[in-house]
Write the structure tokens for this entry.
Amino acid sequence: MIKILSKEFLQKTWTLTIVATTLCMSTWSSAKELALSFDDGLNPQNNPQATIINQQILQQLKEHKIQSVVFPSLIKIGDFQGKQLIAQWGEQDHVIGNHSALHQNLNKDNISAQTYIQSIADADAVFRTLPNYQRIYRYPFLKEGNTAAKRDAVYQWLSSHDYQIGAVSIDASDWFYNRKYLDYAKQADTEKLERLKHAYIAHLLNRADYYDQLAIQVIKRSPQHVLLLHVNQINAAYLKEIIQVFQQAGWTFSSAQQAFQDPLYRERSANIPAGESILWSIAKTQGQQLRYPAEDAPYELDNLKQHQLD
């Protein structure tokens, strides 16, 4: 007689398997610390799910008592309604940073340092009225300049205006998996959504382990990590499970404010093009041969295939 395994049993088995795999991959025995950060924000005028997504992410952070940071961009959130969603983060004791007005890529030839800096200043004028706003700037796409002149001009402006750079130590492609989530949700394909959840969490664990090992190589320690995520539907759907699996894999969660006190986040890129994860940047400066860009959609195709996805 064939025994039918319950969905709950399969879920527990998968969780234990992925945790065991991650622990075997890691050679660092001490507890690893992780802070969560979220980019962009949502505009309720063009995303009917914006309010629900925002509430779901905030609720899951609250349930796990995790203090995070959000980096909104004006072009992503729109006007008053989007600003009110971001205000909810500050009201719940999360830090609100600056992700510019126009979400430009500083590595593009047609983006000058002057226009880029103006975009930062324009966003500052709007976000400074929000609760718990702090002058922490995150570069869109993690791109910090394709020339030394542009890179250094923005660094100088940020420093002279008392800005800290909201760098990340762990980069990931949650935006890519979110696109897949939206496609499968539109098709109401619950089986693919379940496999996507497994693929996505495996991806995040893989990237966290990779960058933690890179840190041990280049700075000789495991820092207080900051993970790059976005305010999007896949994180609204799976954040609770992401947190639980990371905890089971030996990670502890720290606040974003605490994490950014780590000296690692005062480092500046010496590379051209500048940017990526701060750990990637340091490793590149030390002469390591690394893929560029550090994270991108084509790298995830094998992971999709392993989880029987396309």
